[in-house]
Amino acid sequence: xxxxxxxxxxxxxxxxxxxxxxxxxxxxxxxxxxxxxxxxxxxxxxxxxxxxxxxxxxxxxxxxxxxxxxxxxxxxxxxxxxxxxxxxxxxxxxxxxxxxxxxxxxxxxxxxxxxxxxxxxxxxxxxxxxxxxxxxxxxxxxxxxxxxxxxxxxxxxxxxxxxxxxxxxxxxxxxxxxxxxxxxxxxxxxxxxxxxxxxxxxxxxxxxxxxxxxxxxxxxxxxxxxxxxxxxxxxxxxxxxxxxxxxxxxxxxxxxxxxxxxxxxxxxxxxxxxxxxxxxxxxxxxxxxxxxxxxxxxxxxxxxxxxxxxxxxxxxxxxxxxxxxx
Length: 326
Ligand SMILES: [Zn+2]
Ligand SMILES: [Zn+2]
Description:
Bound molecules: zinc ion
Strand content: 5-15%
CATH architecture of the largest domain: 3-Layer(aba) Sandwich
């Protein structure tokens, strides 16, 4: 039987073909390749140093699995923590993924904080979405989910002395976000997503995305090679996801298939371009605080977006507004 040898070590059997480098790699060289690319990205942007206390925000999917494994190779487990949040989505079973996070973190000696929307707000995402139907509020469940999740993670990190929050977004996610921001003409947000983007409030713990130059297919293979064997069910709220992102995702896949390496080249170019204007956005004043919850909000606003959204669905009514509770 013909055995293809790894293009890097020339010894072991190649099991992964990396189209963007035109190389066939063995398991060990592929894992080393991903780990060293993450390390390069971490160093290039000073994402974290050996003294940082890192909080990894993990959902239990393949990207989470990869992030935890790669970072545990690069950082002291004693200075790492994991947070996992149960949204409370009807008919969405993530038990397997969460059990895996608990098991793997325990093996590595990393503490896990398991919490839920219900613990934090008193309501599950399912209940909030139900109320948004009753109140005729046209806000996607994904918007609620993202805002609540970010709030829980940031608050926990800040209150427990973590200096950086790590999320498992991959290259495909990051390029979709960049294109969305460009299409919307939202330069401020484009700058915010840059790894050197400004942190506009001392209440925010800096968020970094170490996997942002790793393809989604690579996190899938990486997680498989280190033992990830289960299928994560698709979130039933996916049908409410804004369609523009789904379309961008579709076209990017086509482009990448036709010209491997396109996403990587694009993100590198955008990083350099945005990096040259990041300086214009530093030195901005501290963000104001929400008059209700005290968390940061956008310039010129009295309340944060979370308090405003909860108000719209009849929870946590803001002063001066009468919202009938159902
Ligand atoms: Zn090799
Ligand atoms: Zn608020």
